[in-house]
């Protein structure tokens, strides 16, 4: 840690010397060990040694930032000088604000030491189990890795965080093949603090592999109807949650005034059964954020509680620009609390609809309207899965969907980053050929 | 500028392997104005060295955030050990990679580095123009940026090289409201290869494009939803470029062919109408420099064009040295890495459908009822060739004439089926190069094409 601390000393003292009113830096050293599988076979082993320096300075409310990856004093002083020059070119903006001390915290999270042999063994075991249990699956790419890093975050107002952390990650992209038939690809992933159990037992991996194998025989949907879209956690994120956060609740859309929820704080925006929180400190989040980019301690916070919008996901800068409160974290560890129905019972209650595992769509409009292809999807008819679909599009409007929630599943996907259920929404347009 | 500290390390190459050493500097400059507020004002310089070693069918790789001979020797040693680990535990049992004759290509010169206020002043000038000339907006965003790569490469065989890849852009994003109060937006990217001070000498040179963007947004805010279903459309050149890249290009990257893409069983078969010819160009296309030229890749292969579809027949893939050997094809120089810490992957360079003979106005006049689709915000495709593009600007075509503008919509199809419906091809190629392709690593790419008349699924409301 001493070498990293010395780098922060050079950065902060040099910034002050050059006239900064305030400076904040994050200095890190990291190591990564990684195995790659491509086209179903082991292809690559990587070992990366990295380091990073980021510095932001304020002078007369002007802001500038630099990012370099050298620790020698000459490079650091050059970076500070460039940062000051960038800052001096900017327009003054009194909204820039960072945490004030005294804060001096040290954290150790996850598994900083890599067990390379065990990582390789779990990777090989996973490949063998998939080959044995899911013979139609072809692994287009699998990346398994251990990442560890030491970071010191400091500012000139007495804030200092020292973190040592590490975690394992398994990211899979695969499709099913039989003769000349093949499915769309699908991605599964999980982040873990340890390698205590076989990876195939983690998150929804086994379920997702099984579902993809069931998509080899597809049917094209004829015509168009308004029905129920049952969204798996990954599709829920892509269609609903990313749109809510990106278009309605974060700095950009609230500062420029395009958020359609800008006048909805403390109002009902969704079905009372729906809640959404940012949960960097939840016990099911691996190596979650300890502090925000502006230096405030990261805490769990509710954004929507019982369907009511209780907080935007604003930074302190965004809060100062808009007059709303800063969110207690800036991480995107999302939690939607589980509902009370099993997935099977939700399906049993749907007369006509679609189960969507993945969504491939254009960026949703500022209004929350979206349209795109329902990938890896199944038709639901008369309460049963009626077969896999191809070339099926869905469209709808996220704010409307939030008030047309049919059900929330009791089982949730916990992948080390988020905790999300399946959710069923009525009133979605589903169209085929 | 990087100096050559790598050649001295060649003695460390294990003769039983194919080995590469690469030093690289990635530079990024960016200013973001959000409705006049400078919300981003960043400079980034990331450099380091990496080694990749091929041994009997698997690779070892290592990188370090330091540009020195000592670090080069350390990463070479680590990569060689990693390759040996893989060969010991999961032997692929393949022979050596096919050798290449030694060549050397060193690009002279440096990448200019304009001061940060160059970006800020230019962005502010564009923002001032938008404020003054585009009155009916509810929000605006201006981004002035540059991202550049400089690479130094030595290999155990093939080409040693020094290459620089500067590119710079200004993005103008505008938001207006429909009569019902719903936000609608459009954006335009301007720029291309070259540093910011070369590409952007006078803000007034951008005003014409800003005026066009604003005029289109004013039409779009009065726009209508497309009628969902299978329709005859004209994809303008930018959309054809997206199709070339996303829907076809990725499926014919040889690593994805090995991963089960639809192109595997389609080689030498008809995948498009005979009006369609598609090439991934290395550095020169249709007698002009490509938007983002590549002369040598990160495996030391001299970059050559990769013909993909010729008169509707799938004729080849884009390859690395390893996949070229596997498929019995010629390496095309498509293996490229984004950062010093990234290994080379098969990536597109400048992918375009070749122009045909049709005039755009004749193509529009030929459609009784359909759509003219001009711009896309994003696109995704599957290894099955099933694609989806967001359409941010387009018009109805009614009785051979352009009608009302469209609100945001989406088109989809299966590439090798959709391309068979192409029955008219425009005579003018439009290139775009401001985006990043995503495939484990980001990568700047060029994509282009002429207008195509074809049939696709279009999403409505």
Compute the average pLDDT of chain B.
94
Total of helices of chain B? 9
Helix amount of chain B: 10-25%
Give the N-terminus to C-terminus distance of chain A in angstroms: 61 Å
Oligomer: heterodimer
Poorly predicted runs of chain A: none
Total domains of chain B, how many?
2
Distance between the termini of chain B: 53 Å
- Percentage of β-strand residues of chain A: 35-45%
* Biggest beta sheet attributes of chain A: 8 strands, mixed
Put simply, the count of helices of chain A is 9
Sheet bearing the most strands of chain B, described? 7 strands, mixed
Radius of gyration of chain A: 24 Å
What is the β-strand count of chain A? 20
- The dominant shape of chain A is globular
Structural class of chain A: alpha+beta
Low-confidence stretches of chain B: none
| DSSP E strands of chain B, number | 26
Your description of this structure?
The complex is a heterodimer of chains A (433) and B (461). Chain A has 433 residues and is of the alpha+beta class. Chain A has nine helices and 20 strands. In chain A, 23% of the residues lie in helices and 42% in strands. In chain A, the strands form three sheets. In chain A, strands 1, 2, 3, 4, 5, 6, 7 and 8 form an eight-stranded mixed sheet that branches. A five-stranded mixed β-barrel of chain A has the order 10-15-16-18-20. A four-stranded antiparallel sheet of chain A has the order 13-12-11-14, with no helix packed on it. By secondary structure, chain B is of the alpha+beta class. Chain B has two domains: 7-220, 2-Layer Sandwich (PmbA/TldD fold), CATH 3.30.2290.10; 229-458, no CATH class. In chain B, 20% of the residues lie in helices and 40% in strands. Chain B contains nine helices and 26 strands. In chain B, strands 1, 2, 3, 4, 5, 6 and 7 form a seven-stranded mixed sheet that branches. In chain B, strands 13-12-9-16-25-22 form a six-stranded mixed sheet, with helices on one face. The radius of gyration of chain B is 23 Å and the shape is globular. The model of chain B has no long low-confidence stretch (mean pLDDT 94). Chains A and B meet through strand 2, strand 3, helix 2, strand 5 and helix 6 of A and strand 2, strand 3, helix 1, helix 2 and strand 5 of B. Strand 2 of chain A pairs parallel with strand 3 of chain B, so a sheet runs across the interface.
């Amino acid at each position: 840690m001493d070498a990293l601390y010395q780098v922060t000393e050079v950065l902060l003292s040099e910034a002050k010397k050059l006239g900064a009113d305030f400076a904040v830096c994050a200095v890190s050293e990291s190591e990564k060990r990684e195995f790659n599988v491509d086209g179903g076979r082991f292809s690559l082993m990587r070992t990366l040694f990295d380091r990073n320096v980021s510095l932001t300075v304020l002078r007369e409310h002007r802001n500038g930032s630099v990012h370099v990856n050298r620790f020698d004093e000459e490079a650091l002083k050059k970076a500070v000088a460039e940062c000051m020059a960038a800052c001096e070119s900017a327009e003054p903006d009194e909204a820039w604000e960072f945490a004030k001390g005294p804060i001096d915290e040290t954290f150790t999270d996850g598994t900083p030491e890599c067990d390379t042999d065990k990582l390789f063994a779990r990777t090989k075991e996973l490949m063998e189990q998939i080959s044995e249990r899911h013979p139609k699956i072809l692994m287009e790419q699998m990346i398994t890795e251990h990442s560890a890093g030491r970071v010191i975050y400091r500012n000139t107002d007495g804030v200092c965080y020292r973190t040592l952390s590490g975690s394992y990650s398994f990211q899979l992209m695969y499709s099913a093949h039989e003769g000349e038939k093949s499915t769309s690809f699908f991605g599964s992933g999980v982040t873990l603090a340890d390698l205590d159990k076989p990876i195939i037992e983690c998150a929804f991996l086994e379920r997702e592999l099984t579902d993809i194998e069931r998509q080899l025989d597809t049917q094209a949907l004829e015509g168009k109807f308004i029905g129920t879209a049952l969204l798996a956690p990954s599709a829920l994120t892509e269609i609903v949650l990313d749109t809510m956060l990106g278009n309605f609740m974060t700095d950009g859309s609230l500062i420029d005034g395009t958020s359609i929820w800008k006048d909805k704080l403390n109002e009902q925006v969704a079905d009372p059964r729906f809640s959404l929180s940012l949960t960097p400190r939840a016990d099911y989040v691996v190596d979650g954020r300890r502090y925000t980019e502006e230096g405030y301690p990261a805490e769990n916070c509710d954004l929507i509680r019982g369907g009511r919008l209780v907080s935007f996901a604003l930074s302190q800068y965004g809060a100062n620009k808009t007059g709303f409160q800063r969110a207690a974290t800036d991480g995107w560890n999302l939690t939607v609390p589980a509902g009370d129905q099993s997935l099977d019972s939700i399906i049993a209650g749907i007369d006509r609809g679609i189960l969507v595992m993945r969504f491939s769509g254009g960026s949703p409009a500022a209004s929350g309207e979206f349209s795109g292809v329902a990938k890896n999807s199944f038709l639901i008819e008369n309460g049963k899965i009626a077969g896999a679909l191809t070339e099926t599009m869905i469209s709808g409007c996220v704010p409307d969907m939030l008030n047309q929630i049919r059900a929330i599943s009791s089982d949730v996907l916990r992948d080390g980053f988020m905790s999300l259920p399946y959710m069923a929404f009525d009133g979605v347009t589903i169209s085929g050929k | 500028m990087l100096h050559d500290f790598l050649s001295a390390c060649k003695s460390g190459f294990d003769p039983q392997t194919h080995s590469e050493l690469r030093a690289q500097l990635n530079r990024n400059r960016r200013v973001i104005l959000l409705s006049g507020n400078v919300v981003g004002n960043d400079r980034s310089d990331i450099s380091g060295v990496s080694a990749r070693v091929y041994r009997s069918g698997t690779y070892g790789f290592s990188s370090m955030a330091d540009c020195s001979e000592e670090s080069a020797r350390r990463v070479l040693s680590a990569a060689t050990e990693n390759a040996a680990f893989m060969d010991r535990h999961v032997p692929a049992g393949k022979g050596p990679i096919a050798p290449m004759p030694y060549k050397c290509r060193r690009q002279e010169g440096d990448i200019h580095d304009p001061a940060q206020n160059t970006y800020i002043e230019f962005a502010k000038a564009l923002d001032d123009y938008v404020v003054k000339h585009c009155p009916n907006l509810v929000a605006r965003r201006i981004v002035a940026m540059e991202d550049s790569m400089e690479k130094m490469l030595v290999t155990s065989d093939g080409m040693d090289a020094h290459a620089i890849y500067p590119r710079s852009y200004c993005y103008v994003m505008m938001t207006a409201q429909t009569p019902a109060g719903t936000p609608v937006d459009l954006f335009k990217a301007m720029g291309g290869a070259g540093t910011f001070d070369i590409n952007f000498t006078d803000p007034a040179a951008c005003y014409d494009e800003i005026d066009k963007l604003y005029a289109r947004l004013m039409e779009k805010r009065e726009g209508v939803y497309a009628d969902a279903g299978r329709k005859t459309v004209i994809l303008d050149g930018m959309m054809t470029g997206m199709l070339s890249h996303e829907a076809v290009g990725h499926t014919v990257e040889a690593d994805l062919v090995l991963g089960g893409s639809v192109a595997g069983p389609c080689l030498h078969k008809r995948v498009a109408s005979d009006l369609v010819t598609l090439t991934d160009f290395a550095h020169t296309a249709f007698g002009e420099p490509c938007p983002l030229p590549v002369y040598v890749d990160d495996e030391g292969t001299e970059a050559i064009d990769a013909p993909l579809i010729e008169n509707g027949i799938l004729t080849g893939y884009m390859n690395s040295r390893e996949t070229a050997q596997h498929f019995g094809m010629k390496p095309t120089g498509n293996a490229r890495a984004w950062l010093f810490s990234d290994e080379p992957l098969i990536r597109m360079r400048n992918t375009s459908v070749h122009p045909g003979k049709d005039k755009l106005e004749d193509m529009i006049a030929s459609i009784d009822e359909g759509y003219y689709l001009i711009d896309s915000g994003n696109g995704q495709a599957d290894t099955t060739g099933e694609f989806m593009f967001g359409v941010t600007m387009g018009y109805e075509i009614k009785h051979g004439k352009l009608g009302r503008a469209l609100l945001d919509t989406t088109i989809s199809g299966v590439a090798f089926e959709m391309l068979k419906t192409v029955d008219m091809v425009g005579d003018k190629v439009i290139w775009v190069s401001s985006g990043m392709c995503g495939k484990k690593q980001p990568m700047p790419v060029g994509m282009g094409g002429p207008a195509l008349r074809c049939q696709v699924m279009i999403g409505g409301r």
